[in-house]
Amino acid sequence: MFYRIVSYRIVSNCPNKQSDSDPIPTWLLKECSSFLVPTITNIVNLSLISGQFHFHPTLKESIISPLLKKPTLDKEELSNYRSISNLSLISKIIERVVKSRLMDHLTSNSLLNFRQSAYCKHHSTETTLLYTVSQKKQDTKLLPITSPNVNRFSKLFHW
User: pTM of this prediction?
Assistant: First the structure.
């Protein structure tokens, strides 16, 4: 089950942003967390027990807003926008609980690849890129400098 200690931590760590679909502002939910966390815990548990990410249809709803990819792009061209989906705070809390439980399970059972960077603390695509560049540099010491792969890789990173 989802423990209250975890829910207090998750609620308190939520950013103060909110979606238009949230019935109350995030800051108010945080202020009243001692009263609301038991109810949030029940909602999360019902969602997990039911086997569905969201047990209630309204939790599946989100507000979708267009965001211009770069300020220099033409605002009239629809392909210059990407959609941003704003979920309700309860949906975000459920996501965080599921992620936390999944990561705990994967870590405790040594199921994560050591190069896994997505959804891992202190890892990013930069971590993976640094590892890849480091490996390629080591590989270039073993391969002749005329290797087509090394030449392509060096052009990519302007070595």
Answer: 0.65
The alpha carbons of the chain give a radius of gyration, in whole angstroms, of 22
Q: For residues 21 and 61, is the Cβ–Cβ distance under 8 A?
A: yes
DSSP secondary structure of 8-70: HHHHHHS-S---TT-SS-HHHHHHTHHHHHHHHHHHHHHHHHHTSS-SSGGGG-EEEEEEESS
| Element at 82 (helix H, strand E) | strand 81-87
Helix (H, G, I), strand (E, B) or coil at 156: helix
* Total count of domains within the chain: 2
Beta bridge partners of 87: 62
One-letter amino acid identity for 77?
A: E
> For the chain, how long is the longest CA-to-CA vector?
68
The two tokens of residue 63 are 């507000």
User: Are both 20 and 68 inside the same structural domain?
Assistant: yes
| pLDDT, tens only, 105-134 | 888 998 877 767 666 777 777 777 777 888
Beta bridge partners of 86: 63
Same domain, yes or no: 66 and 144: no
